[in-house]
Specification:
This protein is 51% helix and 11% strand. The protein is of the alpha/beta class and 386 residues long. The chain is globular and about 60 Å long.
């Protein structure tokens, strides 16, 4: 067996109603003064109020940063970190979707004053130390609560990542009750995003693709393949919501150690230029990247097919089963009510070459794809998705 590294959050705590114990966790693990990072949408749900009640009930002094935007720009990260410094926070809590969790990670890192955001970009450049960190996801999508990755929008549309085990949180608090109110479209987009994490982690060409990640990926796909449609169409089903949250977390652990590839590389420019939510951007290009990869590398997709869709187990031919998996993922996206084409997102066809050119800048991701992908290939995939 080849050598590999596997890192994840120090403590994972899962359970319905667990948010009520947040204040107790903070007192035990951090102290009595924290910065809580969230976004305006979360403020309207009542979940932040529950978190604040738990914190204040435990005697914790809370400073609230509530202005996280989707695809957060550098200015948001720096403002949040500055607030942590000014309030003398002993730790940081991230509450919300992936953007809030990513900003919280970086605020905890930058608030110590040891390095700038610019110095932290890239793989292994975040040196720490950081403030103690608790992350509380409210979507079943990014897996950010267990990944050493934060994505930041730089300039108009480009995205850069901070990738380092230093920004893994001390506690990932997963409470499926927090996802019960998630609207169907967001449930679908974030759910497909999480499934992409598992798919790309399993098939990754990374030298660190490892048995732990592959097993987590297959279990994540088993859970989410069986529960996504129920979560979308019966949003109050706690079992489906629990399976999605746990599956999303496992997929996050998988791709945090066996990195994602061309689906994400082609999705990022769509989100950057047209502000399409990340999960939907992934869903729009997923079938076409899978078909492209499966032409020459069907094995990983054939292997995960029956975990995700048990009825595919009856197909014995490897390439046929891989192709059936690609089509089943496309059908799942459609049944969940997601848009299926780039034109539905008002992306003009003459912009596709720019998307292809920008996708090629995602070298950190493209190197992990099981099939080499050129700019011409990327353009053909965008044309097929249009």
């Amino acid at each position: 067996m080849k050598p590999f590294n596997f890192n994840t959050s120090a403590s994972i705590r899962f359970g319905a109603g667990l948010l009520a114990q947040l204040g107790e966790m903070v007192v035990n693990e951090i102290g009595t003064r924290v910065l809580l990072v969230t976004d305006p949408g979360m403020m309207a749900t009542g979940i932040v109020d529950k978190a604040l009640a738990s914190l204040k009930g435990a005697g914790v002094e809370v400073t609230l940063y509530q202005d996280v935007k989707a695809d957060p720009p550098e200015s948001t990260v720096n403002l949040c970190a500055q607030m942590a410094i000014e309030c003398k926070a002993q730790g940081v809590i991230g509450l919300g979707g992936g953007s809030s969790l990513d900003v919280a990670k970086l605020a905890a890192l930058l608030a110590t004053g040891n390095q700038s955001l610019q110095d932290a970009y890239g793989v292994g450049n975040a040196k720490g130390p950081r403030l103690p960190l608790i992350l509380v996801p409210t979507t079943s999508g990014t897996g950010s609560e267990v990944t050493p990755i934060s994505i930041v929008t730089t300039g108009e549309s480009e995205k850069m990542g901070v990738v380092s085990p230093v920004i893994l949180p001390d506690i990932a608090l997963l409470d499926p009750e927090l996802t019960l109110g998630l609207p169907p479209h967001i449930t679908a987009a974030t759910g497909i995003d999480a499934m992409v994490h598992a798919i790309e982690a399993y098939a990754s060409a990374s030298a660190n693709n490892n048995p732990i990640s592959r097993n987590l990926a297959t279990e994540a796909l088993r859970l989410m393949g069986a529960s996504l449609e129920t979560a979308v169409h019966s949003g109050d089903n706690l079992k489906a919501r629990s399976d999605m949250l746990l599956g999303s977390m496992m997929a996050g652990q998988a791709f945090a150690n066996s990195p994602v590839a061309a689906v994400h590389a082609l999705a990022y420019p769509i989100g950057g230029h047209f502000h399409v939510p990340h999960g939907l951007s992934n869903a729009l290009v997923l079938p076409y990247v899978l078909r492209f990869n499966a032409e020459v590398a069907p094995k990983p997709y054939a292997e995960i097919a029956a975990f995700t869709f048990p009825e595919l187990a009856k197909i014995t031919d490897e390439k046929e089963r891989a192709n059936a998996f690609c089509e089943a993922m496309a059908d799942l996206s459609k049944r969940c009510g997601l848009q299926q084409t780039l034109r539905e997102m008002d992306i003009p066809p003459d912009f596709l070459p720019k998307l292809a050119s920008d996708a090629m800048n995602q070298t950190r991701l493209l190197v992990n794809n099981p099939r080499e992908l050129t700019e011409a290939d990327a353009l053909n995939i965008y044309k097929a998705a249009w």
